[in-house]
Design goal:
Number of domains: 1
Distance between the termini: 25 Å
Number of strands: 5
Order of helices and strands: EEEHEEH
Structural class: alpha+beta
InterPro entries: RibonucZ/Hydroxyglut_hydro
Strand content: 25-35%
Largest sheet: 3 strands, mixed
Oligomer: single chain
């Protein structure tokens, strides 16, 4: 799945370090909507998420990020 800026990962210069750790992009305004979108993508069978900054992320990392969004 090419997720673009729906999700981000990493730090430094667009995510070149710690690329496997998902995080919210700086412009995220509706955490619930993002979580719902990510859940839909997982339900469709997406296994690897390619991001605009950082990544790629496996589905398991995206699931953990959704849990953090809900918390």
């Amino acid at each position: 799945m090419i997720a673009g800026d729906l999700l981000a990962s990493g730090i430094l210069l667009g995510g070149i370090a710690l690329r496997g750790r998902p995080k919210s992009p700086p412009f995220e305004e509706d955490r619930a909507a993002v979580a719902a979108s990510l859940r839909r993508l997982l339900a469709m069978g997406c296994e690897t998420f390619y991001l605009g900054h950082g990544g790629p992320l496996p589905a398991a990392a995206v699931r953990r990020h959704i849990e953090r969004l809900r918390g």
